[in-house]
Amino acid sequence: MDIQSLAVIALALSLDAFGVAISIGISKGIYLKNKILFALSFGFFQFLFSLIGACAGFLFNTYITLVPKLIGGIIISLVGVLMIKEGFNEKNENFLIKKRMYFVMGISVSIDALVVGFTVLSSIPSLNNLIFNAIFIGITALILSCVGLIIGRFLKRIEIVSKYADFLGGIILIVFGMKMIFF
Questions:
Q1: What per-residue string of b and e applies to 96-117 under the rule 16 or more CB within 10 Å gives b?
Q2: pLDDT tens digits for range 41-78
Q3: pTM for this one?
Q4: DSSP-assigned letters across all residues of 119-136
């Protein structure tokens, strides 16, 4: 696989993480440390799932192509609904972020990397090339997640966006979740 094709695949896989990162960046009460951990989680799980998918390869290709998108879309949509629900609560408190949230969100935005691993990366004959491709996908997701967090931080400074950040972030997550499920 040439580098241009790999870059397009990595960007496509990272768009879900980018959208979720914007939502996290807009959210009130999430500390910088938490945002960084979310971005690292997104990058790590993109890498891990593309590598696992490639190693599992052709064995599961015909059976699992629709399931990851459905599960990931449902999880992201549910998180969006919860964010909208939080928007109705007039609290100025910070979120209590549990460690499992990093795993759940990282897995939900990265689960489509399994499909790419099954279909595209499993045909790579060299283990070194396979690992390089998986690392490239993970780093791309990390970079796009950081860009999304930065964009979210700037969007939060706009008064109307800040006032309705939970609603906006929830709607973005629901739209990404529906996209994963239906498209």
A1: ebeeebbeebbbbbbbbbbbbb
A2: 999 999 999 998 888 775 554 555 555 667 666 776 77
A3: 0.73
A4: HTGGG---HHHHHHHHHH
Distances (CA, A) of 82 to 64, 76, 79, 165: 28, 10, 5, 13
147's CB contacts (< 8 A; 6+ apart) are: 18, 21
Long-range CB pairs of 176-180, under 8 A, 24+ apart, other chains included: 176/16, 176/19, 176/20, 176/73, 176/76, 176/80, 177/72, 177/73, 177/74, 177/75, 177/76, 177/77, 177/78, 177/80, 178/73, 178/77, 179/73, 180/16, 180/69, 180/70, 180/72, 180/73, 180/76, 180/112
- At position 113, the amino acid (one-letter code) is A
CB atoms near residue 150 (< 10 Å): 14
Asked if residue 142 lies in contact with residue 96, where contact means CB atoms within 8 angstroms, the answer is: no
